[in-house]
Amino acid sequence: MGFFKSKKSAAAVDEEISELEKSSTTPNNTETTSSKQPTATTPAKTEVLDKPQETSQPSISSTTNTTTNATDDKKEIATTTTTSKKDLPTDSFIHVQVTGEKFSDKASTLLPLVSHHVKCHVTYPIVQVVSTMTFNSPHGKTIEGELVLPMPDGATMMGYAMEVNGKLVDAVPVEKEKAKAVFESEVRAGGTVSIVEKLTQASNCFKTKVYPMHPNQDKTVQVKYQMMLKEKVESKDQETGTLQGSVFIPVAYLDFEKLRSDTNIEFTLNETSLQGYETELSMSLSKFGGEKIEKENQLLWTSKNVSKRSAYFQITKNQMSENMAGFNFSIKKEATSVNDILLAVENGYFMTSVPVPKIPEQLKNQSRIGDKIQLVWDCSLSQEAAHSKKVAKLRKIIEGVGATSIELTQFSCTTIKSQTFTNIDDLLKYVESEEFVYDGGSNMLLFDKNLLNDSVDYCIAFTDGVHTFGHEIGPMCSFGKPIYFVNFSSIVNSTLLKHISTKSGGIYLNANELSDDELINSIGKPVLSFAVADFEDADLTEVYPNEPITLVEGEIFKLYGMFNKKSTNSSTKLAVSFRYGSNVFHVQELVLPISEMTQTDAPIVPYLWAQKKIECLSAFPHLFKEEIKQIGFDFRIVTDSSSLVVLEKLDQYLKHDITPPESLPLVLGEFKKLKKEEADSKLKQEQQKTERILSMWKQRVDWHKTDFKLPEIQPIRQTVNEIRLNELPSSTITSTTSEITTTGSINIYNNNNNNNNSNDLLLPPPPPPGMDAVSCPITLNEEVELCCDEECEEWCTENSADSLIMSRDECLSSPPPPPPSLSMRSDCLPPPPSSGKQSTAVPPPLSSGPPPSRPSMSSIPQSQSISRSAISPVLSRSRCAESSVTASSSLLGDIRQRNILSSSEQQSSSVASVVEESSSSVSGSISIKAWSPDATYYSLIKSSSNPYKEYLKQRKSYRDSPAFYLDVADMFLTSLNSRELGVRVLSNVAELELENVQLYRIVGYRLDQADELELAEWVFEKIKKISPHEPQSYRDLALVKERMGKYEESMKLFNRVITDKWDSRFDEIELTVATEMNHLLLKNPDLPIIDKRFIHNFDLDIRISMAWDTDMVDIDLHVNEPAPHGEHAYFAHNRTRIGGYVSRDFRQGYGPEEYMVKKAPKGTYKATTNYFSSHSQSLTGGTTILCTFFSNYMRPDEKRQMVTIRLSSHKENIEICDIEIV
């Protein structure tokens, strides 16, 4: 009782805060100065523990000083950080994703960590750690950084900060899904942002994303977490004994020698809470040599060796070791009574510490459960790194438990192989042979799906519990035999392993923290555990843990709970039961005094209660998402449902509706003021969206109803190099890039009656009524400068060397004859400085109607830049020139002859209208182009007599390449006809990086193509949970559910895409989804559609849909239609004379893009895809594309085929499909 108290007074603390503020500095300084004022991010309440006079202050100029003291009611952490630029080492837990000029096909790239400061403060029994990391980007562009942090088992992240303009800015809690959306939005906008999130597959792993990271500049982040000392009592007799506690703080580096010399680790101790304890600090070293692992602890400091108790200790880089694994801090105290019950109470919460009683001898002397065991070995790809550790322990474990029969079962995404061994030598020989392979993702659901053999006595399982592939295991799982989980990894889902082991009657063991004897003595025996806590509901509530947990004899068991505020009693009883195996052997009754509900400013016990509750719910986070999220918000803890966000400016907080941290008081005050003044127009905007989408949908339906009549064939007059563009008087066009000199002109229409800027300019049909033609001479040269009146001095391009120059003085007025038909997008006028394309939230009009109005020349601003390709594909080799190489002047007549689209009638309120009579079906075939990667490994594997063995050989060189696994999986699934191996190889992609949406989409698309629909459904469900702010997450899942026959679930997802508000870069995806909703309605007309006005039988001869896996990447769909009437359909020519329709061009990720024809003329339709550009700020490799091809879409004889391909470089074009209509 009272071990959280401090001997310092509040006045003393205030004085120390004042002194700290005077000496605080920023992370970018190279020296500590006293002239800097406290930053806006300094916590409002800060407490500092005085360092003793005999302990020298840190002499390093670049340091992070964080000290903590538990006062009567307060405990905070203060931080000052300085950095300097030196060598650039690389740390093992920093990963980066960036896109540069050359592709990196690895899932992630290491980023240098240049300085690290760790501050540890011990207030018995809590250890708080502040880790300040500075890393540097050696890349030549501004990038996004990603930091993966494996935390100690049981640790809770309590805070995060990022350096912004030289100051550490505290993070604030938001929903996990919203944090992702905010981060991606700010990266696209070029804002400063950082988030921290917890990875759901691993209970102790967190991920931090940072943007921007400028070339050759430092970026500092700070992480705060806390954990409990692990305590136990060693009894000397029934009354006296020794109380011991320890905690391991992992600190390890990949390239220790290159760390800056200012790297250090500091420890501060709360002397009051540790009074009477002996303390010591040691450095843990790990040395690996072949099969042998050596571990040793190097004593750094002990309280026995100092005459006066020291509250501060520092370890500099010179005192560390390159083989360092971390630090052990331990305490020891002689206890006069081993049955003492400790109690702490704060703010209505309590924590009680109960020593676990000794097991009665008659129970303890029971022999092991049996000698016939099953050894379950996780052979997923990520487990290969710990293979040597497992082999080194295997002989000791098997011999120690006295096993006479060992059934070895290997699993990854499926059960791989089972075989029985009767001696350890044969077993070791096998696990060290080439036949023993790590391959595939990890599927923990197999433990509930016949993986275990009920004929054995018990099971030993080597796994980290990190589930990466397939549907998750649920709380209703059951097990026939005890399971003893042994983990060797730093990233582990210990919460799940503890739940399964306890439920089965086994135990979870961390081999990294236990000695060989402790490990062996825990396996194969009945398990000591907490059984239940009985209490009166009127006095206590929410007591945790609330289910059995495994314990160790002599351990200090801690129970957390809340006093009922309505209780009128002065005390209450709590009974704690312990069992060994299935026998309850001890019940400890506690009397808890109900104190007054006094409030402290910085309590510890409520945070410990929250941490324990989250731990109890986190075995199955998908079932308790909302409850976990609320706890994270209330206590500012990073959970499976809540993340932390750092922003830079007030407008960012306003834009995303995120309350700024209290450490930014000025920003917070202005935020609250502006939020009150902000008009609430959200409801009105939601109502307007459906109407806007319906308006665009009507245009699509009108296109579908149009009967496109093909004109008579006109002879081709001239080729590109022979075209004499329509001459204007006194004007010439001179080609400086060709031996042929060409003359001609361009028509620019000046609309005097209607200044309407459209998104598609169709050049050059004759001017509609009310429009005058302005003729201007042009000259082929290095740039394009257009000038058409006094208000527009010049109009320039920046695209290519083949350009046009046109001066205002040369403009003449003679009307030209019509030139060849061209199509141009006005959003190329002008392009943004960084791209040849510019997105717009305004939907482009359908060009199958009357020609859109041209903008008045008076409306064109001076010195506007346009893409040369936007002016004329005839004169350019840019992407608009990818249309037909030859041009016909007869095309203009076709544009004039197109029917004006009339307004469609109001759709019938009856759903039956969707099944109106379809157009007659066409006969034909879909021929997928065989895609064979241009890679050496592909040909070697395919030609090998043992392809799987060759794959394993080649994998050594391509282990981190998603494309490698995709290519090989495709080979096994198709040409080698091995579905099991194909799925296993493909599942490796999910092992490369936890919760990476791009990698999951790669897997999901290929599973969908392979008709592995249940697995594809799980993948897209996972993507929806990770990225619910992207409409593609719902569409991809809806399409898979439709194929599975889950029509109602599919329709709900489609409706979400229509109604929800998305980022403007995804505008018009609703039109594609509306088409697919009608496809779904054919299968069940009674499904609830969001608005019956969307119902239309969208039957088509041909439909092609293309989506891709990478954000901020522009992939284009091109279709060459058959002669004689066919054209090249693509984003810049999106309506063709035969009725070809190309949907909106998605330039910032994912798609989908469509090509459709209702009545397709006979011939071959060739579909190609083009990797146009990438605006991604991450080092992603290539992009995986999913193309779906339909003939007779929405008709009884509909045919469907899919293909996934991989594009690995900009401007890459791949022919993907031929559709033959006969």
What's a quick, concise take on this entry?
This protein has 1222 residues and is α+β, with helices and mostly antiparallel strands.
Mean of pLDDT: 73
> Ends: how far apart?
88 Å
Q: Based on DSSP secondary structure assignment, what is the total number of beta strands?
A: 53
User: What proportion of the residues form beta strands (DSSP E)?
Assistant: 25-35%
- In the predicted model, the low-confidence regions spanning at least 5 consecutive residues are 1-105, 288-292, 718-836, 838-917
Helix content: 10-25%
Query: Major sheet: size, sense and barrel closure?
Result: 7 strands, antiparallel
Instruction: Give me the secondary-structure category.
Output: alpha+beta
Multimeric state: single chain
How many helices does DSSP assign?
A: 24
Give the strand line-up of the largest sheet. 4-3-7-12-11-35-10
Number of domains: 5
Shape descriptor reads globular
Question: Rg to the nearest angstrom?
Answer: 35 Å
